[in-house]
From TrEMBL:
Residue ranges occupied by any FtsK domain in the UniProt entry: 792-1002
Region of interest (Disordered), ranges: 1-25, 65-86
Keywords assigned: ATP-binding, Cell cycle, Cell division, Membrane, Nucleotide-binding, Transmembrane, Transmembrane helix
UniProt-recorded name of the protein: Cell division protein FtsK
Length: 1104
């Protein structure tokens, strides 16, 4: 069987045609019946209120929500068609009945008397028609009926209601007056008409009358809330996906601005979620279609509410905007939200306080933020939100609305204003309360100056951020402008350069200290400044770790500003500050950690043309004195000085002296104490430069510096344990140049402390280049003879009482003959018997004095005779002393005491050298035979002379006989040719002139010191003629400048001398040798005359 579809169209049901609710919800029928009965009762003047009240209660109870086919973004059912919207609206309306009853029937609500008055009016016609029972029924039912009447239902998740109004205490007097008038009028009407409900009506209508303004305000607020909620609901309805997990549920507190701004409080499930930029961007899509923008702000610490801000995309003119608090609040919240989104922060609502006007319109506000992370990080706001950028959405706060913001230096609020700042009139009592006194106390009562300083601070902070970005350091937390020292106080004496000094605090987060900032080179960031450095700040003898000072040259790039200490003279505040910067920069760049450098002091006297800066330095970060010493050469170069002196107090604390010289003249110094301390440190540093340091770091320390004789200065030092005199003497070649001295000579320790070491020093040579002989120093009968000037300016005396004999040697051209001539002249003046011999060159230097000498023998035979006579005279005197009771020559009676005798023999080293050449004579040649005979004869004479000299050296002291031996520079073993050489050499004092090998010329104990003196003299200009060393027996050596007596006929000016009889040496002349073929005398004479004559040119006139 086949089924076919009916072609008859099915008729729609009655309910469908009527467009009413589905059969499942009976409330429409109940409402229809209720309204019909209510209308009929009203026509018959029967109590209609009970019927309507009952019907509405039944309809509300029986109403069922319609089945909705649509879904919102949160998957909740919503109407999908017009029919469903009507059904849903009907259901919402009936369900809204009786909802307001609780608030309207609350005795605190001023609407309750009005409701009662309305019920009384409704009961009047019923009372007139049917009497009291029915009127009371109407009256009683009308009260809840009016209270239950609902407002227009709202669609969407966001709902709002009117703000409840309660009795106002400040209106109590007016309320009582109105209630009294109503009561009087009601009683009068009751008595006049006889209807008791007329007595209720006047009091119910007049008593709430003072609250009418509050009702109107609540009504306006309600309308504004409904408008804002309707807008938000529409935007939410158009979203495909939910912006948050749970939709907002309520809205209140709406305020509107004159330019379309809306600020309202939105009830949410979790406030922080609404700070997400994605949520704002999702809302901005529908808002932009209507020419609006939207943003959300936190409502303080309330986590269940946020502040929604809606404003036109195009903001009004900045001056108009800032003149309206609501508009400014809205746009300020939106700017805050934009910046928070850009910098991953959360922002709270704005709180504004007007503090300034322009043309009687608000122009400046104090702005605070309530809630959010940004509220607790105003440093972030100043650093990130005000970078000077105008790049639209990425620009600074206020760039999109034309409002200027300055973060207050107190970091708890900001100032909002429009330019120009100077045209704003401030309410100073109110504005001054907002000043941060820690930032500036000098601007109290002057908000213009305060804000200008804050603007400068903001600009400076931006500059600091850029300058420190490379070092990953935070900009200063605060710039302390009140303690800033300007260029007017830090200008150099010559006016060519100036500095600015600004204290500032360091951010607490990050753990940074002032020394971290000192290592950053800021010069390029601050306009290629000549000086742009951070230095530390003193705090009662210690150093601030959270404060620092910024020093900058004014103008920034000023080539006239010194950058080296040697260029920096004077002791003004500007000069001292610049010296502090230069030293601090050097330590910061060369050590691992920066150091705290105190304000230096100039130690040089004014207008002396040199500089020496003294300052205290505290090393940090574990840096030690050894680290600083290792960096000393580079530090000296970087500071631009020629000298660094260190006075260490402990491992990390030092007083540094830096300058270009360290003069010994006290008049060159600011104080004598400075000179003494600097010289002491220079000496200590010189020992360190000589690498004389103990393993524990201790070195030689200076104990005393005192002037000495002549140009000399005496230095006393203390040697640490483990050091001895030889160690210090061996380092004098390094010590003296490092200490600034050209001459130095160690002294014998004259104290009981074995750790003491003393030196005589001089910055140049203490000796004159030439010293003339002055015989006024000698008196007849003197037993000691002057011959030179010592380094201390005193006379060098040859005293046979302590030094029996003297050897004068020297290099060619050193002026050694002047020593012999000076001593001979002095001996003649003292009345000594003087004998002179020189078999090598004929004693040419003494020929002008030959007639004044007791003996003058220029030949070998005469030398032989002279020493034989001297030996026999010694024996005679020794016997004479013995015959007179012993003792020595000086104990002899004056009438029999022979004169003191001085025997001078020149070229003594040549005299001792025997002729060792061997001549063969196989042909028996008489000339060769004679030559062999003469050589043996002369060698015999030399042997005899050596024997007598040796005996004289060792035995003649007590006989008053003194030998003066002259020689060319000796070799180490030359005097060993003497018999009993060791004893003989021990009886000789030495004078060694010129620079040569000291071995053989001085005792072995003093060879090292003589070598050092020679090196010292060579380094300081060399040795002039007559300069040498004088060694007394068993003592050290003295550098001397020997007297210059003149030569040739110049010697005739000396005298007259005490008369002295010549000595007849004829008996002591040697017998001539027996020669072959010639007479003995002619042969000897011929040989002597034809032999070479050595002329010493060393004693030519000295030219200085």
């Amino acid at each position: 069987m086949a089924y076919t579809r009916s072609k008859t169209r099915r008729r729609p049901s009655r309910n469908t045609r009527a467009g009413q609710q589905p059969a499942g919800s009976p409330h429409p029928i109940i409402l229809t019946v209720t309204w019909l009965l209510t209308g009929l009762s009203g026509i018959l003047l029967l109590p209609a209120a009970p019927i309507l009240l009952t019907g509405m209660a039944i309809a509300r109870t029986s109403a069922k929500r319609p089945d909705l086919s649509g879904q919102d973004a949160w998957k909740q059912p919503v109407p999908a068609s017009a029919k469903e919207r009507r059904q849903d609206k009907s259901w919402r309306r009936i369900r809204a009945w009786f909802t307001p009853c609780a608030s309207r029937l609350n005795p605190t609500n001023p609407i309750l008397p009005a409701i009662v008055a309305g019920a009384a009016l409704a009961a009047l016609p019923v009372h007139a028609k049917w009497g009291e029972p029915w009127a009371f029924l109407q009256f009683a039912a009308t009260i809840p009926l009016i209270a239950a009447w609902p407002a227009t239902p709202q669609t969407g998740p966001i709902h709002c209601g009117p703000r409840p109004v309660t009795w106002a205490r400040k209106q109590a007097s007016r309320i009582l007056i109105c209630a009294g008038i109503g009561l009087t009028a009601g009683i009068g009407l009751w008595v006049w008409v006889g209807n008791p409900y007329l007595a209720i009506t006047p009091i119910g209508l007049l008593a709430p009358l003072p609250m009418l303004t509050a009702w109107k305000a609540s009504r306006r607020q309600y309308h504004a809330d409904r408008q804002a909620s309707r807008m938000l609901n529409d935007w939410l309805a158009g979203m495909d996906k939910p912006p948050v997990d749970r939709p907002p549920t309520g809205l209140d507190g709406t305020i509107t601005g004159p330019y379309g701004e809306i600020v309202a409080r939105l009830t949410v499930s979790q406030a922080n979620v609404w700070q997400d930029k994605k949520i704002r961007d999702q809302f901005r899509i529908p808002a932009t279609r209507q020419g609006r923008d939207i943003a959300f702000s936190l409502d303080g610490a309330d986590n269940l509410h946020v502040i929604v801000n809606i404003a036109p995309l195009q903001p009004p003119d900045p001056n108009r905007l800032i003149a309206d608090k609501t508009s400014l609040t809205c746009y300020a919240n939106m700017e805050t939200a934009r910046l928070c989104n850009n910098y991953n922060a959360t922002g709270g609502k704005s709180q504004l306080q007007q503090v300034g006007t322009r043309d009687n319109q608000p122009a400046c506000w104090v702005w605070r933020m309530d809630g959010g992370s940004a509220d607790s990080d105003w440093e972030m706001i100043r650093r990130d939100w005000l970078r000077g950028s105008t790049a639209g959405e990425l620009g600074d706060w206020g760039t999109l609305i034309g409002i200027r913001m300055i973060v207050d230096p107190g970091l708890d609020h900001a100032w909002l204003y429009t330019d120009p700042l100077d045209t704003i009139q401030f309410d100073e009592p109110k504005a001054t309360k907002q000043h941060c006194r820690a930032f500036s106390s000098r601007t109290d009562g002057d908000t213009h100056a305060y804000l200008k300083l804050a603007v400068q601070s903001q600009q400076d902070m931006a500059l600091w951020e850029d300058a420190l970005s490379g070092g990953k350091l935070e900009p200063p937390m605060q710039i302390i402008y009140d303690r800033r020292i300007g260029a007017d106080r830090l200008t150099s004496r010559d006016g060519m350069w100036a500095l600015g000094q600004t204290p500032m605090s360091i951010p607490t987060k990050g753990g940074w200290q002032a020394t971290d900032y000192m290592k950053t080179d800021l010069r390029a960031a601050f306009g290629d400044s000549t000086i742009a450095d951070i230095v530390g700040m003193r705090n009662r003898g210690k150093w601030f770790t959270r404060y620092m000072q910024f020093i900058q040259s004014v103008p920034a790039n000023n080539p006239a500003t010194p950058t080296q200490l040697r260029q920096l003279t004077g002791d003004g505040l500007a000069e001292r500050t610049l010296a502090q910067v230069i030293i601090s920069r050097g330590f910061a760049h060369l050590l691992k950690h920066a150091a705290y450098v105190d304000l230096p002091r100039q130690c040089a006297a004014d207008n002396t043309g040199w500089t020496m800066w003294r300052t205290d330095i505290q090393l940090t970060g574990g840096d030690t004195g050894m680290d600083a010493r290792k960096a000393a050469p580079r530090l000296q170069s970087m500071l631009g000085c020629d000298m660094l002196l260190w006075d260490w107090h402990d491992a990390a604390s030092v007083t540094l002296w830096a300058g270009d010289q360290c003069p010994a003249d006290p008049d060159m110094w600011d104080t004598v104490r400075d000179q003494r301390d600097a010289l002491r440190l220079r000496l200590d540093e010189a020992w360190s430069a000589a690498k004389l340091l103990a393993p524990d770091g201790r070195g030689v320390t200076t104990v005393n510096i005192r002037p000495w004789q002549g140009r000399l200065t005496r230095l006393d030092f203390h040697m640490p344990a483990g050091f001895d005199r030889d160690m210090l003497t061996g380092r004098l070649d390094t010590f003296l140049p490092a200490a600034g001295y050209a001459y130095g000579r160690p002294l014998v320790n004259d104290t009981a402390d074995p750790s003491m070491f003393s030196l005589l020093v001089c910055e140049g040579s203490p000796l004159p280049d030439k010293a003339s002989l002055d015989l006024h120093l000698v008196k007849p009968g003197d037993t000691r003879l002057p011959f030179a000037v010592k380094d201390d300016g005193s006379i060098a005396w040859f005293d046979p009482a302590s030094d029996p004999h003297l050897l004068a040697s020297g290099t060619t051209g050193s002026g050694k003959s002047s020593v012999s001539v000076s001593l001979v002249l002095a001996a003649l003046t003292a009345g000594w018997q003087v004998l002179v011999t020189d078999p090598s060159k004929g004693a040419n230097d003494f020929k002008p004095l030959a007639d004044r000498l007791a003996a003058f023998e220029p030949s070998l035979e005469g030398c032989y005779a002279l020493f034989q006579y001297a030996y026999r005279e010694m024996r005679r005197r020794v016997q004479l002393v013995a015959d007179h009771g012993g003792g020595d020559w000086s104990t002899l009676p004056a009438d029999i005491r022979p004169p003191r005798m001085l025997i001078f023999c020149d070229e003594f080293n040549s005299l001792l050298q025997k002729d060792k050449a061997k001549l063969d004579n196989p042909n028996d040649d008489p000339d060769v035979a004679n030559e062999i005979t003469l050589a043996a004869w002369r060698n015999g004479l030399r042997a005899s002379i050596g024997l007598w000299v040796s005996k004289l050296l060792t035995q003649s002291r007590s006989a008053g006989i003194t030998l003066l031996l002259g020689a060319q520079q000796l070799n180490a073993g030359d005097l060993d040719l003497l018999p009993n050489a060791s004893t003989a050499k021990g009886m000789l004092a030495r004078v060694f002139l010129g620079v040569g090998q000291p071995q053989g010329n001085v005792s072995q104990a003093n060879v090292r010191e003589v070598n050092r003196l020679h090196r010292q003299a060579t380094a300081s200009g060399g040795m002039p003629k007559g300069r040498g060393v004088y060694e007394r027996l068993g003592r050290g050596v003295d550098m001397v400048q020997c007297f210059w007596p003149g030569k040739g006929d110049e010697l005739n000016r000396y005298g007259p001398f005490p008369g002295m009889e010549p000595v007849d040496l004829t008996p002591f002349m040697p017998a001539p040798p027996e020669l072959t073929g010639l007479t003995e005398q002619s042969m000897i004479a011929g040989v002597e005359q034809t032999g070479p004559v050595v002329v010493d040119e060393s004693d030519a006139q000295w030219v200085i």
